[in-house]
Structures are given as structure tokens and as C-alpha cells.
Amino acid sequence: MNKKQLIILIVLGLVVGLVFLGGVRQKVDEKESSGGLGTVEGGTRKEISDDVETPEAGESVENKEIAVPVTTYKASEKASASKRVFNIKAEGYKFSPSVIVVDEKDVVNIEIKAVDQDYNVFFPDFGVYKELPSGERIELEFQVSDYGEYEFFCNECEEEMGGKLIVNEGE
To answer: Topology of 66-168 in CATH?
Structure first.
């Protein structure tokens, strides 16, 4: 292959790539402009239904279903993102507390313990899945991106068991 053929292949590859990316972006734009929020395939992202402030470590909240972080670490003095650590338990086919509230770009660290039997937890929008063996404390950590309301659940439980992750818009 000579230099001219190589350049033609590179240019064609770039054109095909740009057309593909433009189509993907158009689909997301269409979904967002039609009132829905863009999400991953099989995802649960939707508009936030409850106006809930993001709690800081140690704050008290009226709604006991809202998890208050055990600790909160700022990424840096200049950054708006934080790492928030939560303790959750799985018991009686329920996550308790069942609502986690964070801000865009935050790192979410959840220490979760299955109290009475084996469970699992699945955050489909973030690709996070963990088995929860009875009696063990399991840690999972991931970074959230876009604001919205997301679901998490036990996807192998006999009874419906789930909660929601609210990601508030950043500043």
C-alpha cells in the first residue's frame, strides 16, 4: 500500500466515524428534546421527581428513606465533586435507606450489608452489579455523571426490591 492509499483510508475512516458519532448524538438530542433524558440502553434515567437537597455527612433529614453520607470528601478545594460514603442494608426484601442523593460528578461509595439472606444490587445505568452474601459487608464505588433519577434493584430477588439514586445538577 502506498502513501496515497493510506491517506485515503484514513480520511474515509474519519468520515465514517464522524457520521456515526453525529447519528448517535442526534438520537440523544432527539430524546432530550422530546422531554426524556438520554440514557444507556436498558437504563432507568428519568427526570427527578422529588426536589431533594444533597445531604452532607452528619446532617439530619426528615425523610428516613434518604441516606445521609457517613463521610463526605471534597475532591479538591477548587473542584465541586465530592466522594460520598453511605451505609445501606438489605433486609426483608428492602434496601434501607432506599434513596441516595448526590451531585453530578460525585464519587459514590456504598458499603452495603445483606442482613437476613443473600441478595444482589444492580445499578444498570452505571454498569455496577454486586452479589451480597448474607452477613457480609460489600463495598461498591462508582462515579455518577449526568443529573437525573436512576433506579437500583436486586435483579434476582423473588420479590420486588429497589431504590433510587438522585443525581442533582452541579453548579
So the answer is: Immunoglobulin-like (2.60.40)
